[in-house]
Amino acid sequence: MRSLSLILTVLLVSAHSFSQSVATSNTEMSGIKFRKCSYEFSSNEFSKKIDFTLPLPSENAVLQTICEALLMGEYDNGTLEQDLKDELASYIADRKSDTTKAEDYNETSWSIAPVFVGGGYIAFVSSFSQKFASEVAPAPMWGDKCAVFSMATGKRISEDEIFDKVGEHNYIVARKLYSTLCKILKRADDGDNVDVSFLFNDNFYFTGKDLIYKYGSFEMYHTSGVTELSLPKKWLKPYLNVDGPLYQYWFGEKK
């Protein structure tokens, strides 16, 4: 019975012009072992590509908690490869007769990758994009979602925790981000006439030297593709919460 089911699945895939590929590999970063799982399938209706690099499933409850937050309930890191295969099988089984026109074609991709491990923290960037063939379809959507987690608790670090509560200081930091943006774009800095608070979007990660902010397609539509702004450690020191995780990681001292 299982062989018959497999044959039918293969025939369905062939009849509806499907292609699929799965690849897994292991890597290591700062002593943490990761599994890279790449999965892609496409048809004449759409294509979907997933590329996840996540900590290996283990007895480490904190890392498992972090993975659950990154996967947002869509998949289970412990059964990720099988979940992806089941998703395709379900799509084939539920699929109705093909009446899709070429202009309805769309493609999506989702990737998750670690970008920093150090000081008891681990940072990931999750990238998503969706494109449509039709001229009347919505504009392409894309964006990067950053998250920094404590490796002691699995808790995500928020913007409110890293900056002090002085409103003037928050404005200075936002102005610095805007000034950096203007330099990248090689245009005049008119930040005094702009509400620069939109640059504080709680979408950041940090390394041993910088704080990096990421922005999506709708946030930075006017910036000709600029999606990342960074602020250096030394410059940021006066504006950080001295009891917060970033100040303690970078400087490890009190004022």
Please, could you describe this protein's structure?
- 29% of the residues lie in helices and 31% in strands.
- The protein has 255 residues and is α+β, with helices and mostly antiparallel strands.
- The chain has two domains: 2-96 and 104-150, Heat Shock Protein 90, CATH 3.30.565; 159-250.
- The strands form two sheets. The protein has a six-stranded mixed beta sheet, with helices on one face. A three-stranded antiparallel beta sheet has the order 7-8-9.
- The model is unreliable at 1-16 (pLDDT under 50).
Quick structural gist:
With 255 residues, the protein is α+β, with helices and mostly antiparallel strands.
The CATH architecture name of the largest domain reads 2-Layer Sandwich
Q: Please, what is the average pLDDT?
A: 82
Main sheet overview: 6 strands, mixed
The N- to C-terminal Cα distance equals: 71 Å
Percent of residues in β-strands: 25-35%
Task: Name the poorly predicted regions.
Answer: 1-16
Please write the CATH class name of the largest domain: Alpha Beta
Radius of gyration: 22 Å
Reading the helices and strands in chain order gives HEEEHHEEEHHEEEHH
- Helix/sheet category: alpha+beta
- Briefly note the CATH topology name of the largest domain: Heat Shock Protein 90
* Strand neighbour order, sheet with most strands: 1-2-3-4-5-6
- Note the total helix count: 7
Q: Tell me the number of strands.
A: 9
User: Globular, elongated, flat, extended or rod-shaped: what is the shape?
Assistant: flat
Helix content: 25-40%
